[in-house]
Amino acid sequence: MFESVLVANRGEIAGRIVHTARAMGLKAIAVYSAADEGLPFVAEADEAVLIGPAEPSGSYLNAAAILEAAHRTNAQAVHPGHGFLAESAAFARQVAERGLVWVGPPALAIARMGDKINARNLMKEAGVPVAPGVWEPVPDAATAAEEAERIGYPVMVKPAAGGGGIGLAAARDETSLRKAFEEARAASERLFGRGDILLERYVERARHVEVQILGLADGTVVALGERDCSVQRRYGKVVEESPSPGVTPALRERMLAAAVRAGEAVGYRGAGTVECLVDPAAQEFYFLEMDTRLQIEHPITELVTGIDLVEQQFRIAAGEPVSFTGTAPRGHAVEFRVCAEDPHRFLPGTGEITVWEEPVGEGIRIDAGYAEGTTVTRHYDPLLAKLCVHGDDRPHALARARAALEAFHIEGPPTNLPFLRELLDRPEFASGDYDTGLVTRMRSPQAP
Question: Which segments constitute the ATP-grasp domain (predicted)?
Fold first, then answer.
């Protein structure tokens, strides 16, 4: 096992990784931008290095500055967290070329899964179900209209690069398709540097369910259960739970087996997630993409399995066996993403946090990136903290969640805490019979 690790990220995920590193006796080294000097993860690390200005391009996306920090601190490994450079095959290769341990999957696996069209084709070859759609990038709106007629409306328009729901749009006719195509291509070119677009059949009333996998050092791939991520606003996840209340035991078995095949097909190592779209009516599922990193929602898998995923990432990267023997889930867990944003329109907010009071109690876990007296800026994702609860079953977990959300008190920038409390009172969510359109219907009652 290496003795030190540089965490190439910020906020709650940086603090999360630092926590496990120190618990394992590893030296935890943080990097931070000029805007983040006062955040908790900087103080929690054994050593911290300023790497640049607030703008991500000059700091957390600056590979040269991060590698220089690793050299200056004699770091032996680099953990990228999620976002920023976590799914950059080029950065993974640079880390390895410097003689450092990359705490993540092989660069080739990142590259092969980073393009949604390539990933889609590879998964089809591996026997993983994929939705009807295209097998090559769609060059223009006219061709998109032709392909949509072949696939059948409604269709989903999505950039082949990137993630986070950016550029995604559903089209129900040619007019909306052409508009969505041009908007998706413009967004993809601006944010990801390329405008390749793909089309897939849109599944009505679908659930978004993902499977956590681990590719072990000996080449084995194991599945650690699924997470339901169907509570979304603008295709961005807000609440996740495990296990999914919309997946039957038979469907779960098929999904976990397919996720293992997906990992095996790319020689996967470390923690990864196979995301799927589930058609509850037909009890079918389709591959969406593979996230070649640790997911934001990984804590709920940890709560139901008792497995520290960051510890396993470290062990796998060091070529060691994992430290667990069983993967059977216990109870039910839910994660709520607490964000600095307007609870009605979901527009991000900024400002100093003047009050920060966290809930405490059995079955409650908080992964926080901020604290009282810190400032939320415009430069980064508005995620403030992840409130996670675990219970003996779903009703027990939701009861704990209700009490925890009522006790979570933040003043300063606006937060989505009122929305999260409202969600718990929504009959669809309370029953578990919801889909990816839930938030849209909450904010626009006339929405289909």
Answer: 120-318
